[in-house]
Amino acid sequence: MPTRRGWGVLGLAVGLLLLWLLLGEGEFLSVGALLATSMALAFVWVRIADPSVPISRDVQPERVREGDDVVITLELTNPSPVPLLGIDLVDTIRGIGSSTSHLARVPAHKRVRVPYRVTTRARGVYRVGPVRVAVTDPLGLMTRSAVGGPVDTLIVYPRTEVLEGYPVVRGRDPSIQASRPEFSARGGEDFFTIREYRHGDDLRRVHWPTTARRDELMIRQFETPWQSRGLLVLDTRSQVHDPEGFESAVRGAASAYLHLERAGFELDALIGSDHIRSQDPDPTNRVLEALAAVQPSSGLDLRAVVARLRRRFIGGALVVVTGEVDEQLGQAVSTLGPDFGNVLLLSASAMPIGLLPSIRTPLAAGTCLPGETWAETWQRLKGRSWASA
């Protein structure tokens, strides 16, 4: 279609031709015909210089944390026999914005790379693309655009903090206490479960009957009897959070999960109503992706959700991250708390925790007030419930 300049030239050409018809002056015909010919040649140019060109995108890295930079590189190939002139590439990231790159010229049968940088300011799962490509003729009279290229996903994890100290919990053997758990990957004594094969697993542990039945490699999972387990619960009910407090709670949950997971805990996570098990494939990335995408929920019944998890974590550690502590949370913690050897309640709120309603299990509780860090809150509670490590 014509550009703004093209519409002006087209209007001028029509006007001059009308004047020639009315006045019969040859100069009007000559100039009008020249302008009309220019528009026709511009149309032919953009028809040949097809903007539907192959485009690829490289996102590095695909997973980042809040505040990190991402470099996105678009690679465009011109298969046309004529150069592409005046190209605009518009790449949109839903929820963040768009990047517009201008290329003066892409030679025929050549490839160019166009990088741009994005600073991620908020966690989330973002859709990147497709790319809108627009080409113009050398005089800038006509333009033609097309949408192409892949649609990629950019995952922005919550920002995390470094915590210190680990809970003293019992493993599966109630006669053993351990503040630093052992990894089951080293080879345990007790058969625990059968799971899908993961890259790097010892093929000697393949469970052939289950493999034959499911037609995929299944591995016998062993667990050392002293291995610590735990459950992280993020309360996503909208009625207990304000927007700033909810983001703080998500960062606190991510920090606690990574801290305990790196220490060797077999850690499940309950993100709202989404239960991610430690035996699931790639549980750490699944938890972080869930935390990247989680939003406050207005219809969550926390008591009903936690009731399904009773009797699964005998002797482990329970970490609950919430906003304001209310009656429903108290009942949920009372339901799960007796199954655990250590319970920690973390609140992201502008008000310190007062009397804990309806909680009938021993626990350590603390509030991360606005302006404080989760590392400070964790450190305060370590002396009451956490072992120094």
**Proportion of residues in helical segments:** 25-40%
Average residue pLDDT: 83
Can you name the CATH architecture of the largest domain?
3-Layer(aba) Sandwich
Order of helices and strands: HHEEEEEEEEEEEEEHEEHEEHHEHEEHE
Largest sheet: 6 strands, mixed
Estimate the strand proportion. 25-35%
Number of helices: 8
Number of domains: 3
End-to-end distance, in Å? 68 Å
Give the structural class: alpha/beta
Could you say what the CATH topology of the largest domain is called? Rossmann fold
In the predicted model, the low-confidence regions spanning at least 5 consecutive residues are 171-189
CA radius of gyration is 31 Å
The CATH class of the largest domain turns out to be Alpha Beta
**What is the global morphology?**
elongated
Number of strands: 21
Explain this structure.
The chain is α/β, with parallel strands linked by helices. It folds into three domains: 4-48; 55-157, Sandwich (Immunoglobulin-like); 166-189 and 224-387, Rossmann fold, CATH 3.40.50. Helices cover 28% and strands 33% of the residues. The protein contains eight helices and 21 strands. Strands 2, 4, 5, 7, 8 and 9 form a six-stranded mixed sheet that branches. Strands 17-16-15-18-19-20 form a six-stranded mixed sheet, with helices on both faces. Helix 1 runs antiparallel to helix 2 and helix 4 (243-262) runs antiparallel to helix 5. The protein starts with a helix and ends with a strand.
